[in-house]
Amino acid sequence: MKSLGIDIGSSSVKVSLLDIATGGCVASATNPSQEMPIEALHGGWAEQDPDMWWHYVCEGIRQVGAKFPLRDVVSIGITYQMHGLVCLDREGRPLRKSIIWCDSRAVEIGAAAFESIGRDYCLAHALNSPGNFTASKLAWVKRNEPELFARIDKFMLPGDYIAYRLSGHVSTSVSGLSEQILWDFAEERRADFVADCYGIPHVMIPEACPSIGTQAETDAATERLLGIPKGTPISYRAGDQPNNAFSLNVLEAGEVAATGGTSGVVYGVVDTPKADPQSRVNTFVHVNHTPARPRYGILLCINGTGIMNSWIRRNVVQSTLGYAEMNALAATAPVGSDGVVVLPFGNGAERVLGNRTTGAGIVGLDLNRHTAAHVLRAAQEGIACSFRYGIDIMRGLGLAPDVIRAGEANLFLSPLFRQTLATLAGARIELFNTDGALGAARGAALGAGYYGSRDEAFASLRRLEAVEPAAGDRDALEEQYGRWVREVETRLGTA
To answer: For residue 150, is pLDDT > 90?
Structure first.
């Protein structure tokens, strides 16, 4: 028996097959070979075609199906880029491109709604400002594309759309409602007060189901198209960051996960709902939440992390070096990068900065002394500094990580980044043999009942490495962090 995991990123789509008995990955496929395009018609905009995701989902499923028969698939799990908006008409067709997570156009709309609803009420019930999240994106469509808005039958998240294409059934999850800022934490129900503030008809909002458990079943069209048997349960669905935490067995209060893809995230689990008054970090319903055993995820998101590193590769070393070679070259520069400071905030409005768009920056260059190695190291140190900046905010909410779990992928493949983050955060970094698609597949097997417990589901999870803070680097990195914070405060006008 196999479980299929689908990971819808903004850069690529990954599909993995998990052997349920052994817990091992038997096949995987990532598409396309180059990053998927993000369309930006105006500054701060970011859109992708939902049918592009579906195309690469189908391509990946066929590729893994060429290695193992898909009739053996008994459960399907989906993880996806959070906060995106997909609008469907009555025939189930997308009406426009998806306004994705890093699109900043709705910032002012969300800020106005925060005041209109009332800050205290909004924080007490939604735990967040409506900000730049999905409901605010839909409000932007209502204001700026009223004819299109009038044709919307349902709106949903990217993962909801893929579940719909596989099953013909429209739904979302409770965790998904929370990431759209459509969940009332105080009342344990949908936050209709946010929809009402925006004039969004309630009928547009899909029904919600738990993240873990059967949500829908594949239909005959999927069987004809892909060979997955009709009636296969879609039994797990989660945004990429709650799923990354699930993938790392981060399910209980005090446990913390991190990832460093296009964006960088630290995600910690708590058992009491907590809100940052400035909404610099955000609280969502975690995948294993129930009213009887509440679990919430406090999420720090930095939009410009991996994308900063890839920009440096394209434009500083001009892709002549692979990432492993870049990491090695960066390590030849001294700790603290000899005063070169990089701000990675170049991928839209940053929540951790109060939804401000400061832009990225390279500061302190001495053209007679500094080399590409200094810039490469400063980029990784700057990204780690942005993590530390957010972790300090999380500490103010009572979440003080001494261990941070991560998959061995993306930025966490860099020994320099791992060590820098461990030292700046004062926490041990533990790396594990998992990723988003595998986590979704494992969640699907659990949700469909093929694993009887959490322990059984994660029996094959292995710790690959542990990185402790480096006492000898602490002073230099604290000095670098001080320079970094001063530059951020100067750009924010708070210095």
So the answer is: yes
Same domain, 128 and 41: yes
- The verdict on 344 and 228 lying in the same domain is no
Bridge-based pairing of strands 463-467 and 403-407 is unpaired
d(CA 115, CA 477): 39
How confident is residue 320, by pLDDT bands cut at 50, 70 and 90? confident
Question: Is residue 442 in a domain?
Answer: no
Backbone angles phi, psi at 164, to 5 degrees: -65, -45
What are 266's two structure tokens? Answer: 């630290």
Task: Answer whether residue 400 is part of any domain.
Answer: yes
Q: Are strands 73-80 and 233-239 parallel, antiparallel or unpaired?
A: parallel
pLDDT tens-digit profile of 238-285? 999 999 999 999 999 999 999 998 889 999 999 999 999 999 999 999
Q: What mean pLDDT, rounded, does the chain reach?
A: 96
Dist. CA 409–CA 306, nearest whole Å: 11
Separation CA 374–CA 372 (nearest Å): 5
Q: How far apart are CA 113 and CA 129, in angstroms?
A: 8
CA distance 261 to 423: 20
Neighbours of 69 (CB within 10 A): 10
Q: Which domain holds residue 396?
A: 301-433+463-492
Residue 450: how many other CB atoms lie within 10 Å: 19
> What is the domain-level CATH number for residue 313?
3.30.420.40
How many CA atoms within 13 Å lie on the side-chain side of 208? 22
